[in-house]
Write a structure and sequence with these properties.
heterodimer; A: 443 residues; alpha/beta; 11-stranded mixed sheet; 10 helices; 21 strands; globular; B: 253 residues; Rossmann fold; 6-stranded mixed sheet; 4-stranded antiparallel sheet; 9 helices; 12 strands
Amino acid sequence: MSNKTEIKNWYLSRFKDFENSLNGESAKPIHKLRKEAIENFSLLNFPTTHDEDWKYTSIAPLLSHNFKPSDGISHLDENKIKKFLQYKFTTNVLIFVNGKFIKRLSKTKNLPQGVIADNMASAISSNSPVIKEHFNKYANNKEQIFTALSTAFTTDGAFIFVPDGKIVEEPIHILFITDSKGEKILTQPRNLLVAGKNSQVSIIEHYASTNDDIYFTNVITEIAAGEDSVIDIVKLQEESINSFHICRVEVNQERGSNFTSHSISLGGEIARNDINARFNDQGSECTLNGLYLLKGKQLYDSHTMIDHAKPYCNSHEHYKGILDDKSRGVFNGKVLVRQDAQKTNAFQENKNIILSDDALVNTKPQLEIFADDVKCSHGATVGQLDNDSLFYLKSRGIGKEKALSILIHAFASDIIKSIKAETVKNYLENILEKTFNKESSRN
Amino acid sequence: MLEIKNLHANIEGKEILKGINLKVNAGEVHAIMGPNGGGKSTLAQVLAGREEYEVTKGEVSFQGKDLLTLSPEDRAREGIFLAFQYPIEIPGVSNTNLLKTALNEIRKYRGQEEFDAMEFLTLLKKRMKLVEMDQSLLSRSVNEGFSGGEKKRNEILQMAVLEPVLSILDETDSGLDIDALRIVANGVNKLKSKERATIVVTHYQRLLNYIVPDFVHVLYNGKIVKSGGKELALELEEKGYDWLKDQQELVTN
């Protein structure tokens, strides 16, 4: 089924099935939102390569499959789930399998009073005032088709609330596992993180699967960073190489807030990440770091947008890619500095290493600057590993494969070092070593 | 230990080495001098196995093995060390990590047991004293932010750790002040032994006051045009290279 209208109708029919399965829930306010969203979805069109934002990323492969929205049912046994936790990133863990919260295996210890680390379904059904204030306030399902699709099927996801003044010392690991058992399923986690004034929290948002099946993950994450809050998110996307991952993060930053995102991606058949951050007041910082490691025929696309809507804010963007075989990477970093956003500092850098003749990168910085007292810079490079460095290592007795591995590691090291949690850092060093090692078999 | 016979080498189609003959025995120090562009650095890099150079004629044997068929890493594992004229900066790779990996690869090749972190660190600390290196430089990235002198001392430190049989110092003295020169030479001298040999490639005679050669060869226009003892270096210092160029012209005419 490659016809776009047919696929839309497919999802519209699936919505009807979904609606019919919701005993009594259809009366709830959340359902009103879902219905608006599906209505919007029916009016929107899937992007094509004629759309500027999708110029280098054709989603034709994604639209060629009939993905069935997951009902959350899985029979994944506990030991298999625990395997994903073997690196013990932290003691706070929220586990989702096929989009559904697994309460009995999730646990949070010693969270400060008032901090909520729970699942979205519970938060919604409990009529949480936080939900009322923030849910769906930053995501746009009127204009973004994947947001509309996800919103229409809103069921579950992570809900993290940190009240004013609270500091969550240990990171919270949110693990989304897909166990599709050969079925082409679609999971659509809907996440919300609200950090109160002067609060601090760090999150590890982790997407993984039990095999290399074809499935589709469509994620929407909304983040409300309160005044003077400090938020750090490591997004670890290590899904099936045959999967499709579309993710949109909407961040709203209040005065003096500090938001850092580390987006680590091993790609999928198509992995597309949109991060949209907006400075709603002065004195804030936004740091977006990214590392993508691509092989085979993977396609990775990262679109970021930082809106300096107010003055005295700083943004730093630092994305690095390593591409092998016939993989393709796309980077588009948009920075908008509005007219009154004086004393803005905005720095952006995208560096890529290609390891093969067929790998390809399209990188485009896009700075739109309307204020005059600002410091902005951007840089993009695409190149190969330095021959002189390779020879230097070989001349010390280091073999070619090891030398390549050392240089790849060196290239990615600053992105990995910027992650605070040691356990996550070590995990990533491990992944990095295995990914491009021709001697070891790819998972 | 090393025998070079009629070595010819090109880079980008241009012939630089036009028939080098040289024999180096264990325990000896050979200096290769000559005007710029003569082929000194080229010789050093060809011996180390730099792929940009194409060997078109000749043979090189090292400890009885055909050196030219070996990859750069195997040459290093066999015991050849090149101290670079312009040591590379490699951000993101620590000095310690580079050395430990290199040493263990060499030991593995020789059937020796690899060092673990503790054993290696002990060895490293001892060697650092030799080149008067500060410990803080160890955790930094290879040559990153190092001064010229520190980079050259780092080359000698690597030499001290990897313990090569044949060391080739490519213009190690270029850009060094007298103090750095003294430290580098001291390190090299301490590493000399009856089983090891050193080739010192240099433009100036001054280094040879500190690293005293047994033999001095002058490389001019791709060939060794004159060989002698250490006095030859002093003669060149006095008369300059033009003296030799004139002599060469006399011979060819």
